[in-house]
Design a protein that fits this description.
The complex is a heterotrimer of chains A (431), B (205) and C (314). Chain A has 431 residues and is of the alpha/beta class. Chain A has 13 helices and 19 strands. Chain A is globular. The relative contact order of chain A is 0.17. Chain B has 205 residues and is an alpha/beta fold. Chain B has 4 helices and 8 strands; from the N terminus they run αβαβαββαββββ. In chain B, strand 2, helix 3 and strand 3 form a beta-alpha-beta unit. In chain B, helix 2 packs across helix 3. The two termini of chain B are 25 Å apart. Chain C has 13 helices and 9 strands. With 314 residues, chain C is α/β, with parallel strands linked by helices. In chain C, 40% of the residues lie in helices and 14% in strands. The chains are: A alpha/beta (431), B alpha/beta (205), C alpha/beta (314). Chains A and C meet through helix 6 of A and helix 5 of C.
């Protein structure tokens, strides 16, 4: 169906500030009309009363595990899980096997995505070869092949000298360098946030200062080089306040925070549930509060899932052996709606952080309902109650701390390029 | 612990007190004392060599009874019979594996058991299983020459072939009733009484 | 008795601890007989599942089980073969199918006994997991103090050593606090765990202040191999600042006792003299260890979950 009319929903367009009940017409893959009382004229009509109609969410940070670890996830299953969560564009990290540090690999990923992923896939290429933190990658060639940003996420560039050169060189291609800030020598063998919980559990602690030290370093290097820095998954109060001060000083930096760092604390680890094990770790209450405040006041620009699938047998190990990460595409919306329910963000501001801002950071034509925008739309019911069962989800993996929990807020329909790709009643319907 | 003959007023008071607590008094302290005096004589009659006697009490009720018996034997025959305490909990055949485990009680065996005539002392004997457990426990301490059993109250309903050598009183009961030795004032160091309670969840020996 | 498993002191009420100590008194009496055996757990199977090697604790549990007439089976998968072969939970499930009456688990990573308990029907007893808990050690320490001092309420207990990496410290902190003692910890600063005072203890970096007025001094083992050079500069400096000898013991009360979970690094945590003579009660601790473990087996073994009601099915 090339003409679809979404009728009577709450239109939320952060790009224009629109927050009103109305209609949205999709035709030939783009937004044809937005506003009240659009005539149907032969379009397929979908009633959206009681729902929010928002530009499709853009995820700055996820792991699709292909190539190399397809047993955990692949581009097809990741793309399906993404649209089930309302994400129409997803940026995938380079820590695959082999690493995406070569244009041929970037090509491969885009090719697979074109064939099998209902969501748009934006490859993030490695900043250094093999993620070894020594030699920078061929950024120009990678951008030409389709890379949208550079990151050694999964690892950290420990050498300050290398980091500086990477940031300098990135100015050639004018795309963000995304940093996973964790000083490995301070992390040590820490697996839980260092604090009262690590003390109780008798597990090695990963101190907040391990993240803060690197955020400080990278902010100063960004200032010195004029590069475009984006800080991934901020988790510490110290990190948030340093980014705030850096912005005030005019340093070009953006930052993201995950749904889990906004809503969970290290107390979740008290049950030794390895689904609580993530990098950076879940922190204390003060850090969580600071992240929420940072998201509300704009210090943290975007919400990114850091969707990190791991197989059941991998997570079913001792806490120190289990790999870090949790899946997040399908629970992100329900989890972050808590901030709207608590009055910390308006619906429009939430959508801005899920869609418009991430699109802007990656310089994508997305995150807007303006006429002519790509027909990437998410229709959601913020009140819908459901129980999350990862076994019934679209990801190949199940490692979520919300497994079995009752959630409120669900994506009902997702459109990419004007076509319906996800319907909560029928599942993923294309490709 | 010396035996005491309570004044007659005490007996009336005892009856009054038991009317407040549940159950009927089968034996008050005076009746118990008399029975123990008789049993002491019987023990001496049956055992020529009193120097080999060893009273072994099964807690909790057997303990004050054994002590009184020892005092009686000292008074009558001027012989000091050692008194041991042997908890049978760890030898029971009915430790339900799923429920909570019963509390353990004291075991104190001041004398060796070998070649002795051990006289087990228990307050109420019913199925005979406690006596069986006590004998198993006793065998782990040594090899007595002979084992005899004192039961202050024999209420029948044996499930094992256990006989009592010395009985204070035979009391016919229905199996679901409860018969127990208690301190009249709450502790076993003072005046004692044996009471009968109607059908109850608690079992006894 | 709360729960089916003994995973840690943190989960126990004071009344549970008292129950275990009370039972241990009677079990110790069994250990003083000539025939040190009672038939209570005859026909029952106890499995020692020790992923981390240990001669003392395992032997102590084995003797305890055998004194209760149980059949004790030792299963010691070495950690390296674990990674290649069966996972821990697969091993545990296989064992469970053989219907044991208790599984005793020791592992170098915190939380493993709990994960095993989640999939087993049989009761799980934690014999030490990572730096998390070692409940039977704390129970025997509490028992030893109770026997020596007649009480635990109101005593001052000072624990000295690598608190950060010590499960013995954590379990004892919970145990002694629940039984009414005041607890102090003393260590070089890098070995004081973050926020330890939130557990209810006072932390000291001065041994002298920590010992002032102490009734019980518990020295913990230092792992030289792992830590010298990173958490403290050298064994020599550790012994000089935190090692206990008779002269440093003068800071404590005159009748203070000295404890150690063993094995002792002579000349490091304790001087040679203190390791072997009063007021150290180390051998009593070992003896009491068997009584405590007999009490624990008596109270926990055989109380299985109803079949099929495992909290986790996969």
């Amino acid at each position: 169906m090339s003409r679809i009319l979404l009728r009577g929903g709450r239109l939320l367009d952060p790009a224009s500030g629109l927050d009103e009940r109305g209609d949205l017409l999709l035709e030939e893959g783009v937004v044809k009309a937005v506003g009240a009382g659009i005539p149907a004229s032969g379009a397929q009509v979908i009633e959206a009363a009681g729902c929010w109609v928002a530009p499709g969410f853009v995820d700055l940070h996820c792991h699709l595990r292909e190539p190399g670890q397809e047993y955990k996830e692949d581009i097809a299953s990741g793309g399906r899980a993404a649209v089930a969560g309302g994400f129409t564009s997803i940026a995938c990290m380079a820590n695959t096997h082999p690493v995406n540090d070569d244009p041929a690999m970037t090509d491969y990923i885009l090719d697979r995505a074109r064939q099998d992923s209902p969501a748009r896939v934006l490859p993030i290429a490695a900043a250094t070869r093999g993620l070894e933190g020594k030699v920078m990658t061929e950024m120009a060639a990678l951008v030409a092949a389709g890379a949208v940003a550079f990151s050694d996420d999964g690892k950290t560039i420990m050498d300050g000298g290398v980091m500086r050169r990477v940031l300098q060189y990135s100015r050639l291609v004018e795309v963000p360098v995304i940093v996973h800030c964790e000083d490995r020598t301070l992390v040590g063998d820490g697996v839980v946030n260092e604090g009262p919980v690590s003390t109780r559990l008798g597990l090695p602690g990963n101190p907040a200062v391990a993240e803060e030290v690197q955020i400080a370093r990278d902010l100063l290097l960004a200032e010195a080089t004029g590069a475009y820095l984006h800080v991934a998954h901020v988790s510490t109060a110290g990190g948030v306040s340093m980014i705030r001060r850096a912005r005030e000083r005019g340093i070009s930096v953006t930052a993201e925070v995950t749904p889990h760092h906004l809503t969970l604390t290290d107390a979740v680890a008290l049950s030794f549930d390895t689904n609580s094990k993530v990098a950076p770790p879940l922190r204390g209450d003060a850090d969580r509060k600071a992240c929420r405040e940072g998201l509300a006041d704009g210090t943290l620009d975007a919400i990114a899932t850091d969707h990190a699938p791991h197989a059941v047998h991998e997570k079913d190990l001792e806490y120190t052996q289990a790999p870090h990460g949790m899946i997040g595409f399908e629970t992100a919306l329900a989890v972050v709606l808590e901030l709207v329910r608590e009055g910390e963000l308006t619906p429009l501001e939430l959508v801005r952080r899920l869609s418009t801002n991430p699109a802007r950071i990656l310089k994508r034509n997305a995150g807007s309902l303006a006429v002519g925008s790509p027909g990437d739309i998410t229709v959601l019911d913020p009140e819908r109650r459901w129980t999350y069962d990862p076994a019934k989800g679209f990801s190949k993996s199940r490692n979520s701390p919300w497994a079995g929990k009752s959630l409120v807020g669900r994506v009902l329909l997702t459109f990419v390029a004007g076509k319906l790709v996800f319907d909560v009643e029928r599942g993923v319907v294309a490709p | 612990m010396a035996q005491e003959t309570p004044p007659s007023i005490g007996r009336a008071a005892a009856r009054g007190a038991s009317a407040v607590s549940a159950g009927r008094v089968l034996l008050d302290d005076t009746a118990i004392a008399r029975a123990l005096t008789r049993i002491a004589h019987e023990i001496l009659e049956r055992n020529e060599d009193v120097s080999q006697l060893y009273l072994v009490a099964i807690p909790n009720g057997g303990v004050p009874l054994a002590r009184r018996l020892a005092a009686n034997l000292r008074q009558i025959a001027e012989v000091d019979v050692p008194v041991g305490v042997l908890d049978t909990t760890l030898y029971r055949d009915d430790l339900k594996m799923t429920g909570e485990r019963p509390l353990l009680r004291r075991t104190e065996m001041p004398s060796a058991v070998d070649e002795r005539v051990v006289v087990l002392v228990d307050d109420v004997v019913k199925t005979g299983r406690t006596i069986r457990a006590a004998m198993d426990a006793l065998m782990d301490f040594g090899r007595p020459r002979m084992v005899q059993v004192v039961g202050l109250v024999d209420r029948g309903h044996r499930e094992l072939p256990i006989k009592l050598d010395y009985v204070g009183k035979n009391v016919p009961t229905s199996p679901r009733e409860t018969v127990s030795l208690r301190g009249r004032d709450g502790d076993l160091e003072g005046l004692l009484e044996v009471t009968l309670l109607p059908a109850d969840a608690r079992g006894d020996a | 008795m709360i729960g089916r498993d003994l995973l840690g002191i943190e989960d126990l009420e004071r009344s549970d601890i008292e129950r275990i100590l009370h039972t241990a008194v009677h079990m110790r009496e069994v250990g003083e007989r000539e025939v040190k055996k009672v038939p209570t757990l005859r026909g029952r199977t106890i499995v020692n599942l020790f992923f981390e090697s240990s001669t003392r604790t395992r032997a102590s549990f084995e003797i305890a089980g055998k004194r209760l007439s149980a059949d004790v089976v030792n299963f010691s998968p070495s950690s390296s073969s674990m990674k290649k072969a069966e996972s821990i939970l697969d091993t545990a499930r296989t064992l469970d199918a053989m219907d044991p009456d208790a599984v005793i688990v020791r592992h170098e990573v915190s939380g493993v006994p709990k994960s095993i308990a989640d999939v087993l029907d049989a009761p799980v007893i934690n014999a030490g997991d990572g730096a998390h808990e070692h409940p039977t050690q704390a129970l025997l320490d509490l028992f030893t103090v109770q026997q020596e001092k007649g009480r635990i309420d109101g005593l001052t207990v000072t624990i000295v050593g690598d608190i950060l990496h010590s499960r013995v410290a954590r379990s004892n902190i919970y145990g002694f606090l629940k039984m009414g003692a005041e607890v102090r910890v003393a260590a070089p600063p890098p070995m004081i765990p973050p926020a330890i005072e939130e557990l209810g203890v006072k932390a000291y970096t001065s041994l002298r202040e920590a010992l002032d007025g102490a009734d019980v001094v518990m020295a913990l083992r230092i792992q030289n191999e792992r830590l010298a050079g990173s958490y403290f500069p050298s064994v020599r400096e550790y012994a000089a600042t935190f090692g206990l000898d008779r002269s440093k013991l003068h800071y404590a009360k005159e009748d203070a006792i000295v404890m150690h979970p063993g094995p002792v690094n002579r000349g490091v945590e304790l001087s040679h003299d203190l390791a072997d003579h009063r007021p150290s009660v180390i051998l009593d601790q070992v003896r009491n260890g068997v009584a405590i473990r007999m009490a624990v087996l008596y109270l926990f073994a055989g109380r299985k979950r109803e079949h099929g009601q495992s909290r986790r099915t996969s």
